[in-house]
Amino acid sequence: MLRSSEKFAVIFFLAGSLLVIASFMGLETSTYLMNLIGQIAAFSLLALSLDLIWGFCGILSLGHGLYFAIGGYLVAMHLVKVAFEKTGTPPDFMLFMGWEDLPAYYFGIESFAYLLFLVILVTLSVSLIFGYFSFRSRVTGVYFAIITQALVYMAMLFMFRNDTGFGGNNGMTGFSEIFGLNFRENKTATILCGISLTVLGLSLLGCKKLVDAPLGRFMRAVKEDESRLRFLGFDTVYVKLTAWCISAILAAIAGLLYVPQVGIINPRVLSPELSIEIAVWVAIGGRGSLVGAIFGAVVVSGLKFILTGLVPDLWPFLLAILVVGIVIYLPNGFSDGARVFGSIARRLVSAPHRKLQS
Amino acid sequence: MTKSDQAIYVSGLNVSFGAFSVLKNLSWLVNFGEVKGVIGPNGAGKTTLLDALTGKTEYQSGDIFVRGRHNIKGANEPVIARLGLGRKFQKPSIFSGLSVFENLEIALRSGKAILQSINQLTSHEKEKINETAVLIGLSDCLGKDAGTLAHGQKQWLEIGMLIMADPAVLLLDEPVAGMNGEERTKTATLIDKLKGPEMAIVVVEHDMQFVETVCDSVTVLHDGQILVEGPMQDVKENPQVIDVYLGRDSENA
After folding, report:
1. Which end of chain A is more exposed for a tag (fewer CB within 10 A), N or C?
2. Do A227 and B77 touch (CB under 8 A)?
3. What is the ipTM of this complex?
4. Does B109 touch chain A (CB under 8 A)?
5. What are the tens digits of pLDDT across the range B46-90?
């Protein structure tokens, strides 16, 4: 599975770039389909980010929705500001508050470069501060997972407030255009989907390079036996912190890609459910396998799109059955499955040979 | 003996967990060039002594000096390890998901600055890994996952990982536990090869015969204090040792 990471990265990258080019040349596509693929690509990137720290460094976060939301809310601010500059009226959620103008912290965010800078800055600050103090205090395992969950829950409670300028419980919506492309145009969905796939491909390649590099070996060593590493003279805080921050930035980029495609962000992305769902994707796809994490995100969110339409009441139960089944029969998720099915297939193929020989 | 001959000097060390005092005003010296055995009944404080030496356990009072001059009070594990204290644990503690080569590579890089630790290996460093692999008898298994090694091989790999950092002191906690006779002999040979004027080796072990084979002198710990110290031959005949450790009544009793 691991060896095929590069192959998949190239496929995602090429498919994404082709989509962008084709849409500029006038390709007409199904907006629904493009939106679906684009959203799943964003989720895949989110799964990849969690796999990087959980699968390779042994740090389980049940609060990665926080970083996803940082990217999501910042891009929503960008889109609101762009719409405001066009129309001169603030979005509804601000009008309800009686605000005539956007708050001061929207300053400059209409620039996309500044937006990217802010996403990196805010994500790095939050992940560095949180990571440094947790890792230095040697909070690990389930305790660490609980703290990440508490943090994302706190952020959700804060975002539910209506007076923050981030839309409160209704969320932020009413976006008109991105890069000068109107959201009503068919082209926009295709281009956003293409960009998401391209970014996913690049990130997959980057993660593959990272886990194969010496730093990646240290990450695996932390996962295997952190105290051994300390007694060898290596301060593990910095390896964990580096992996943690890279993972947080990938999650934020996923949020940045996701929100323009769904056209809304509200505090529900900060609910513990989403953050746990990310862990479910990775567990199902296979911890420690980059392609596996993406596969898990695609399968589970794909199933969710289909089944919540067909049998909405049954979806939680079906998901639960899937999770329990995977945990019992394929402890390493589908990446185990590939091995199991592979060996069954080999046995089927080689069985006649053995008979001939005997 | 001058200060520079001292590999480890422990002075008035007290370690207690709550009201229970494990090490009581312990003073102890290990010189370079020496292979020192530490024996004693269960609960004597052998592993606690190693824990205090390597920064795993805090001590209430007393001082520990490494290489004659570095007082390690308050230092954490990585800092102490960088001073040259390498510790092998009772249970083989290696990175089982990584190959033997990668285990040695990680150990080699661990003692270095972060930025140095992400460079490609130099040919000199690769050679060092190969030499160590030959020394610990694992040169044929460099590509194998460490988790698939036999128990004895895991123990040797862990010792090999310690050697990669050019330690001044090797602390070996039960290096031959669970080994068969042949593996014990190999381990004894390995320790003999490692022995040198620049190195002090501490062996905590229950196997008396092994201790007698590899160690120059022996410290007997009992109840958090040093009962007696000296060559194994003398220690074996010491009535106090026979009394507390071998569990037999001494003739003087």
Report:
1. C
2. yes
3. 0.88
4. yes
5. 999 999 999 999 999 999 999 988 898 989 999 999 999 999 998
